[in-house]
């Protein structure tokens, strides 16, 4: 039960401003009539509020002729002069995108890590350079509202300290502070899977769903959750560590110190090694194994089936714990699921005697590998969407 | 992200009424001065709102002399003339309590099932009789606001249909509708572990925490969660099914159709059978095994240690997934934890290489076996706490 607090009228106004801005950011250009209906406010209130957003430079109003009867309608349009820079720090590459209010990707670049190194100083420098290039290439009148970064690790909510990002070899790295100092701009950092589920919810395979599990595997497995429409963060921002549920008491040993973690049974390298391939080939190598399995190579087929069974074991635990409407699969989980859908579903449904559970739909991520990147943009838009009046006036 | 909606002034007033009533229900008698401070509203607003609550018969105001300076203070007191009936349908017994606004248990009775039967018609009749006896024994001027029931099973949120309660042998039983019809009163039903976490949050071991896992074992294991201060229900009310996470790929077979579920490794009967006792002895038999282990009986000691290790495996998965501030243990999980705390903690912390996670405190349930019962009372108080103005005027 949240602590009850009183609500004043200024707060009310801010809530309504926020509601309008969030709506046009999410849906794109929206008529005043739709806003009036959707928010349950009267027309003059909507007019005053959109006027204020316009004077803040966050929206423009256009008069459009909509529908057959030719009546002109005021269209409230998110202003793409407001942008954020989104960054996804992956194990293999860094992706940087310029994203406008309303969610459109205006520019985007990708680069491998410098000499393949994950040293935090190198990563900060690479990211900073890519951001500067991106902003330099953009037209001059843009207002950059912030920088959002996705990292594959546990991030402390208060200050963006990266507590542990095993696949980058980071422990207690003040990445966010370093990047913010280097850029002289505020930076927000989040866990890649938490940002992935956010993006899939706002613009992907989970639009319209409030209870969502996003599970994405590459080397490790990331989990991001929406619970009743809100992101699951946990007390300190570490929730969603799905890879280290024990699924087998007999092993194998996991790098975390325990045995039989889900991550030791699924994931890119597990599949590759079971199929007799070298670890480290990434999504392309996984695709090759799946193609070989389809072409009849027994060892590849066995590997795909085995990993599909274990995918189902973990998804089943998640479905039982969270009762989501939809489970969105990313990375190699999506690859295996598309290759062996029936087998994964069989494994998920193995405890059918348990209960007539609500059906959770399984889907591939609609934003593909970009979910965390788009989620990082949403993270960076967060402050202005929460407090439109606090938008910086300098461009 | 919740769908943004506009907020009107009538809604604002209702929110403030609600905030005051929830505060005095949770904290007990509270001075106007504290309410003013806590809710951030001015004194005259608080006065008007408590006046309205008083005219609705939900609170009384008393003038008390508080503190050393002898200044009289208006004390807002929840009126215990408003009661609910709380019911906990267990496998062995039914408990019924009369609970006043403010949370005090005014009366309470417990009875075994009729001829040990769980047939839904028998259970409905037993519960109804116990409720009628409870209300008949109470003083005449009470206003009964509702009936709340805890059941050990999956409950559909919309209508209280009990989808599956394996330890009662129920599948798709319209228990709530049957009881409501029999009593001619509204009845709300919830899962016992979901209600347990609610009670521990409002009045038990999890007061002040927003991210809480409540895990309680008897024959099966129930899980109830608070996530960011809100109950985890899942899309259809089935979330928190912790007993059927697979923790061992090699078995044993579980009654759910799968193998190696957590429930096959912990729980009363698992402990009893591993210690060479007969299943079915309940908490007393578990206590006997723990005493025997302490006295040096090797088989009992081995059973306790083994179950303690497996308790830790499941708790570890929950800690990794939810990152709770506190894990509240009930039933035989609490018994085993108190008997072998160091061993459970060792097992929970087995993946120390994973990350410096936020510390989750492990605790026994403060309300003991009453957590679901007290949670059922909170469920029944829910409508009036949400909409104080909609309180029925008839006593």
TrEMBL record, chains A, B:
CDD domains: ASKHA_ATPase_ROK_BsXylR-like (cd24076). Belongs to the ROK (NagC/XylR) family. This is ROK family transcriptional regulator. It comes from Nocardioides conyzicola. The lineage of its organism: Bacteria, Bacillati, Actinomycetota, Actinomycetes, Propionibacteriales.
